[in-house]
Every structure is written in structure tokens, then in C-alpha cells.
Write a structure and sequence with these properties.
Blueprint (H helix, E strand, L loop, with lengths): L4 E13 L11 E4 L2 E6 L1 H14 L9 E4 L2 H12 L6 H13 L4 E2 L18 E2 L3 E4 H13 L4 H6 L1 H10 L6 H6 L15 E3 L2 E3 L6 E7 L13 E19 H8 L11 H16 L6 H4 L7 E7 L22 H19 L6 E6 L12 E2 L3 H17 L3
Helix pairs in contact: 1-9, 2-3, 2-4, 3-4, 4-6, 8-9, 9-12
């Protein structure tokens, strides 16, 4: 299969906010180029992207997965939907047997002291770690459980049926599993190599965290009680972030497998997944303290490249931090990127195989206009990228 890499670069300004907290509640940071920068972890933006798929209906629910420890409860509910008479405790027993037959370990969580005395129900077994399973895998495992429901232990003792359980957990991956991968410590042979690598977003300039001291008024206080009902501090910063992700389209195609329906081209699932990723990654936003800061921004500038050689980050354009002496960082950040990209591409790029698109907002981004083909909006960008990916996948290797 052709090697195809898709690079997504974005410059995005966020106002005072705390998108992604560390263990002290402060916005995450990093040293880059010898100075402190604002940082948003890749994990935070991956989760925001996954949530965006469902929230904005970019993909059908059957094409998405669930990452949870509560896999027994989840599978039991599917079993109950397949065969209503099995719903409840019987479905949970069947679910536990099928999951273990697939090689996945589960355990019953410890109960709180006095839980039984307080009338709490016995806890349901869970996996030891977050387990990522696609909707289609859960449905297939549920049908297997119903098939062997009469004597599930004997049914799963048969070598073929045990093999089916494992195979069903490792085929028909959802788009989010195919994109972001899956790591199963107990059964390494059903791991899925991620097709996407997401860099930690970094500010292009020096950033020092600040603290907001706040007070909250008790609505029921009388005029004789002027004091605050609550006081505290919230750490925050503001930044122009450089965001980057690299998508190995050939790995994504391998993870997704053949087309899902006989009436659609082989490239169709990949095209849909690529379009959803580009749209979701660019338009999503980590929700850390969003009710406090309302940091709903979109990227000021986006550069997307499709090539056959290797992924290429442009973060080195900001190794020397943008100073913003005249106020604002976007203009200088775009100027830096517009100067850096041709230099990198001349030295290491492959002009013959590289296609570049640019989406930008406002005059501060004007120097990026000549970097690639300009598109008017994110819809056009997503469709153009998807179309080019499908065309390249169709070419003989």
C-alpha cells in the first residue's frame, strides 16, 4: 500500500483559560527554547477530538468506540438488547464469561465499609484498566454470549468458540480505535497501533501562569453580613498555541480493514475517517474550566500537507520564542511559519508528492497565503483533503 502521511498544523490563540490542569490545578507548562511555555497535553486534545466526533455527529455511533473499565456492565446491556429475557444479573454473568474468554482480565472492585449493611448492591466486575472496544465489537460479543447462553462455560470451553471471542474483540475496529490505537496489557496481540500522533500544543511565546483571586457572595446573606461566602484562587494563562498532528493514512487503512459495505469503494471508510479527524482535531477544544473562562476560539491559521515521504512538524519555527513587543503574537507567528516552511521543504521535503492547503483568518495571517492552496472554510478544507486521500489510496503502490 502507498505510504501517505497527513500533517495538520494550526496556530490558535486562547484567552485567559486553564484548558488542561496539572496535579496542582495550574495550567500545564513546558520549557522549550529555554523559556517557559503554555502547554496542552496530547491526551487532552485527543479526548476533545473523540468527543467532537459524537457531539457534532461527524460519524455514525456504530463507527465509534467506548473506553471504559465498566466493560461488563456495557456488554451486559448489549446482551439484554439482543435477548431481553437475559437482561439483568444473567446478562452480567454471560458478559463476564465472554470477556474473560477473549483473554481480558476483570476483577470485582472492593466494596466500601458498611456498603452491604447500607443496602448497596454488590459491585459488578470491571477490567483493571480502561478498555477500548468498538460498538461493532461489543455487538458481536453480545451475540456470541446469547448463542452460548444455555451453558456459557461449556460453550466457551470449545476451542473454536474461545477463538471466536478473541477474534471478535480484534476485528471491525471503530474509527477512533483505528485513529488513536488501543493498548491491552493482558492480550498484547489485540493491540492496535495508533495511526495518529498528536504533539503537545505549545505556546509560540514565553508564558507565565497567573492566579485569579475570587470571592463568591452568599445570596442569602443579609446587609449585616457583608463578608464573602467563599474565597479561592484559579490559575490561568493565555497563549497563541502551535498545534500539530501527524496521521499515517496507510496505517489507518490497515486498522480499518476493507470497506464496511459491499456497495462502497474500499477507500470510503478511510476517507470518512480522515475527514472526521481533520475536522475534529481543528474544531475541538479541551473543556478544562470552560464554564469559568469560556475560551471558545478557533485556529487563526491552518496548514495541512499530504505527502508520501515522512511526517514533518514545523515547531522549530518557534524554538526562539515570539516576543510580541508591539502586542499580539499571531502576526509574528504566521510570519515565522511562512518563512520556516519553504526552508524546511527545500531541505527535506518532496515537492513532487506534497500537496498543501491553507485556511486562515484575518490580515495577520496574510504571509501564509502563498504556502499552499487557499481554501475558504473548514468544510472545503475537509472535503479537499478527503478527496485527495481517496485518490492516492486508489493509485497502484
Amino acid at each position: 500500500m502507498n505510504r501517505i502521511f497527513l500533517d495538520v498544523h494550526a496556530l490558535q490563540t486562547v484567552p485567559p483559560s486553564n484548558l488542561n490542569r496539572d496535579d496542582t490545578g495550574a495550567p500545564k507548562s513546558a520549557i522549550y527554547g529555554g523559556v517557559p511555555r503554555a502547554r496542552v497535553s496530547s491526551q487532552a486534545w485527543k479526548r476533545a477530538t473523540r468527543e467532537f466526533f459524537a457531539d457534532e455527529h461527524l460519524l455514525d455511533p456504530s463507527e465509534l468506540g467506548v473506553r471504559t473499565k465498566k466493560v461488563v456492565e456495557l456488554l451486559a446491556s448489549r446482551i439484554g438488547r439482543v435477548e431481553e429475557s437475559l437482561a439483568g444479573e444473567r446478562a452480567r454473568e454471560l458478559a463476564a464469561e465472554v470477556i474473560q474468554s477473549a483473554g481480558l482480565k476483570i476483577e470485582v472492585p472492593k466494596r466500601k465499609a458498611n456498603a452491604e449493611k447500607d443496602g448497596e448492591q454488590a459491585p459488578v466486575a470491571q477490567s483493571k484498566y480502561l478498555l477500548f472496544l468498538s460498538s461493532r465489537q461489543l455487538d458481536s460479543l453480545a451475540r456470541l454470549a446469547v448463542e452460548g447462553a444455555d451453558d456459557i462455560k461449556a460453550f466457551l470451553k470449545e476451542k473454536d468458540n474461545k477463538g471466536r471471542a478473541k477474534a471478535l474483540a480484534d476485528t471491525r475496529h471503530s474509527v477512533d480505535i483505528a485513529l488513536f490505537g488501543r493498548m491491552v496489557a493482558d492480550v498484547a496481540d489485540i493491540n492496535v497501533d495508533a495511526a495518529v500522533q498528536v504533539a503537545h500544543a505549545l505556546s509560540v511565546h514565553r508564558v507565565e501562569n497567573e492566579s485569579d483571586y475570587y470571592t463568591a457572595v452568599d445570596d442569602e446573606n443579609s446587609d449585616a453580613e457583608p463578608g464573602a461566602g467563599m474565597i479561592g484562587t484559579v490559575d490561568f494563562n493565555s497563549a497563541t498555541l502551535y498545534r500539530y498532528a501527524a496521521l499515517s493514512v496507510h496505517q489507518l487503512a490497515a486498522n480499518l480493514g476493507e470497506g464496511l459495505r459491499e456497495d462502497e469503494p474500499r477507500t470510503e471508510p478511510v476517507r470518512r475517517a480522515v475527514e472526521a479527524f481533520v475536522h475534529g482535531f481543528l474544531a475541538s477544544l479541551p473543556k478544562g474550566k470552560i464554564n469559568t473562562f469560556g475560551h471558545h476560539t478557533a485556529p487563526d491559521a491552518v496548514v495541512v500537507t499530504l505527502r508520501t515521504t515522512r511526517p514533518m512538524s514545523y515547531v522549530a519555527a518557534f524554538e526562539e520564542p515570539v516576543r510580541g513587543d508591539q502586542g499580539g503574537h499571531v502576526r509574528e507567528a504566521c510570519d515565522r511559519l511562512a518563512a520556516h516552511i519553504p526552508d524546511v521543504e527545500r531541505a527535506y521535503g518532496d515537492e513532487a508528492s506534497t500537496v498543501t492547503w491553507v485556511l486562515r483568518v484575518g490580515p495577520n495571517t496574510s504571509k501564509l497565503a502563498d504556502i499552499g492552496t487557499e481554501v475558504e472554510n473548514i468544510g472545503t478544507l475537509v472535503a479537499s483533503v478527503g478527496r485527495s486521500v481517496a485518490e492516492r489510496l486508489d493509485k497502484p503502490a
